[in-house]
Amino acid sequence: MEGFLASSELPLAFVPVFASVLALPGPNAAFAVGQSLKYGVVRSLYVPLGFMLATGIHAAMVLSGLGVLVLQYASALVVLKWLGVLYLLYLAYKAFTAKSSILAVSPKPMSRRTMLTTAMLVSLTNPKALLASLMLYPLFIRDAGSYAAQSVALGLVAMVVSFGVYGGYVLAASLIRRRLVRSHRANKIVGAFYLGAAGALAAK
Length: 204
Prior knowledge:
76% of the residues lie in helices and 0% in strands. The protein is mostly helical.
């Protein structure tokens, strides 16, 4: 165990650098905020969980060398990306056309599984996320020590950072939600965040 920790010790700069990249406003952040405003902090924690799993998949792809291969077949990612955009637009439409003016959990809320898989889809179909991973992870691999151990450590830390950043977005949005519960424009605000997430993903 000590050998593993010694060989996979991370530069202290990795955490703030990776966190700052994730914290930039984009489709992930907009989707997290929209879900939190709609369903509250507890249920919406499946969103950062989905982003965390996607971060792990990106790390595995990049550190195993699959990331370069995937970029050679970027057309498949483009198709998946637009499917994600269409789904986010559908969520925006449902929010904008909701009959109730009170922000409340829908009688048929998004299931936890759907919330998690949609978050993964939004993140995994973002080409810039994969490109950023390709550029960032190699910078923190040292010549000394086990490559496998360092890769595992980087991936695990990246997943924890991802959950923390997007969990922070969910928590912050939930605080705003308390003020919006009785707002007549609440559903429109939620719809705007879904629309923003769709636009940000489409622009990638």
